[in-house]
C-alpha cells in the first residue's frame, strides 16, 4: 500500500511538473511573440521615419530637380510605402494586440495613400493654367493632412501596444513615429507648400526675379502700414493687392494671400496673378469672406509668394492696421 501511495504521489508530482513545464513553454513562447512583434514593427516604423525624412527633404532642398524628377521620386516614395504597409500587414501579433495592429496598418495606409495623391497632383502644381494650378496646390495641401491623421492614429495605437507590453511584463516598446515634421501647421499651409514647390528649378535660374507690393486698397480706400485706416464693411469687401515685378524675367502663377486677424475671428483669402511681364504691375482682388469684425482695430497682412530665383523677399509682405465699420 505504501509503495502504491508513493507511486501515485510520484505520478502526481510528475504531472504537476509537466503542467508547470508546459505553462512555462507557453509563457516563453508568448513572450517571444510579443518581443518579435515589437522588433519587427519597430523596424517598419523606423523605415517609415526614414521615408518621411527623404520625402520632406525634397521639398526643403530640391537640389535642382526637374518637375519630372520630383514627381518620379515621390512616386518611388509611394511604392516604398506600399512595401512597408505589406510588411506591417504580414506581422502576426498575439491576439491581445489585434485592435492596435489594425490601427497601425491603417495609419501606414494613410501615409501610402497621401504620397500617391500628392504625386498625382505634382504635374498640375507646375501648370500655367490658374485653375489647374490652384486645384493641384489645394490637393497637395489637403493630403498633407493625411500624414497628420496617420501620426495621431499611430500614437494612439502605440500607447495601446505599450500598455499591453507593460501588463505582460515585456520590457520592449514600440518606437515613436511622426511622418509629418514639425512645425506641422506649416506643412498644412497652402502658402508654405507653394513656396517649397517654387524651389524646383530643373537647373540654374537665370535673370533677376523681384516682386514687391505696390499698394493695397479695400473698398477703394488705400491702406497705410503706418496709420490705422477705417473701412466700410458694407457689401462684400475685398483687398485689391497691386504687385510689381522689378526683375527682368516673366513670372507666372504668383500667389497672393491676405489674412485679417484680431477681434473674435480670422479671415483668410487667396488670389493668383497668372502672368507678369518685367516691370509690370498687376492687381488681384482677394475677397474677404466672411466680412471681418467691425468696431475694433484689426491687422490686415498681405503676403506675395516669392517666385523661383527670388532671393530677397522683404518687399513681399506688409501689415496694415485697419478698422471696419
Note down, in words, how this protein is organized.
With 325 residues, the chain is of the alpha+beta class. The protein folds into two domains: 2-197, Four Helix Bundle (Hemerythrin (Met), subunit A) (Up-down Bundle), CATH 1.20.120; 211-324, Sandwich (Immunoglobulin-like). 48% of the residues lie in helices and 21% in strands. It has six helices and nine strands, in the order H-H-H-H-H-H-E-E-E-E-E-E-E-E-E. The strands form two sheets. The chain has a five-stranded mixed sheet. A four-stranded antiparallel sheet has the order 2-1-4-7, with no helix packed on it. The protein is elongated and about 115 Å long. The relative contact order is 0.11.
Secondary structure elements and their pairing?
Blueprint: H1 2-60, H2 67-90, H3 98-121, H4 130-167, H5 184-187, H6 190-197, E1 211-218, E2 221-222, E3 229-231, E4 238-245, E5 251-262, E6 265-276, E7 281-287, E8 297-304, E9 317-324
Parallel strand pairs: 3-9
Antiparallel strand pairs: 1-2, 1-4, 4-7, 5-6, 5-8, 8-9
Helix pairs in contact: 1-2, 2-3, 3-4
Amino acid at each position: 500500500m505504501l509503495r502504491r501511495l508513493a507511486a501515485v504521489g510520484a505520478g502526481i508530482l510528475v504531472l504537476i511538473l509537466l503542467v508547470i513545464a508546459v505553462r512555462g513553454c507557453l509563457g516563453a513562447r508568448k513572450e517571444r511573440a510579443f518581443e518579435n512583434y515589437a522588433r519587427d514593427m519597430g523596424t517598419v516604423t523606423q523605415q517609415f521615419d526614414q521615408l518621411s525624412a527623404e520625402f520632406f527633404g525634397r521639398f526643403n532642398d530640391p537640389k535642382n530637380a526637374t518637375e519630372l524628377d520630383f514627381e518620379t521620386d515621390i512616386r518611388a516614395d509611394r511604392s516604398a510605402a506600399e512595401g512597408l504597409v505589406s510588411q506591417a500587414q504580414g506581422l502576426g501579433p498575439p491576439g491581445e494586440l489585434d485592435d492596435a495592429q489594425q490601427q497601425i496598418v491603417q495609419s501606414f495606409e494613410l501615409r501610402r495613400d497621401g504620397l500617391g495623391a500628392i504625386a498625382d497632383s505634382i504635374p498640375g502644381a507646375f501648370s500655367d493654367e490658374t485653375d489647374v494650378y490652384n486645384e493641384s496646390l489645394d490637393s497637395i495641401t489637403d493630403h498633407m493632412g493625411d500624414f497628420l491623421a496617420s501620426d495621431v492614429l499611430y500614437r494612439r495605437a502605440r500607447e495601446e501596444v505599450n500598455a499591453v507590453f507593460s501588463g505582460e511584463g515585456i520590457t520592449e516598446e514600440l518606437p515613436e513615429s511622426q511622418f509629418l515634421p514639425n512645425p506641422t501647421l506649416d506643412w498644412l499651409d497652402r502658402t508654405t507648400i507653394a513656396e517649397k514647390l517654387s524651389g524646383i528649378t530643373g537647373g540654374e535660374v537665370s535673370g533677376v526675379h523681384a516682386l514687391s507690393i505696390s499698394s493695397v486698397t479695400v473698398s477703394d480706400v488705400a491702406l497705410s502700414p503706418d496709420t490705422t485706416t477705417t473701412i466700410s464693411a458694407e457689401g462684400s469687401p475685398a483687398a485689391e493687392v497691386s504687385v510689381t515685378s522689378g526683375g527682368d524675367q516673366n513670372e507666372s502663377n504668383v500667389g497672393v494671400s491676405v489674412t485679417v486677424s484680431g477681434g473674435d475671428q480670422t479671415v483668410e483669402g487667396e488670389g493668383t496673378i497668372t502672368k507678369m511681364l518685367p516691370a509690370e504691375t498687376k492687381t488681384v482682388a482677394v475677397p474677404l469672406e466672411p466680412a471681418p469684425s467691425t468696431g475694433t482695430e484689426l491687422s490686415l497682412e498681405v503676403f506675395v509668394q516669392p517666385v523661383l530665383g527670388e532671393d530677397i523677399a522683404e518687399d513681399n509682405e506688409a501689415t496694415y492696421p485697419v478698422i471696419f465699420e
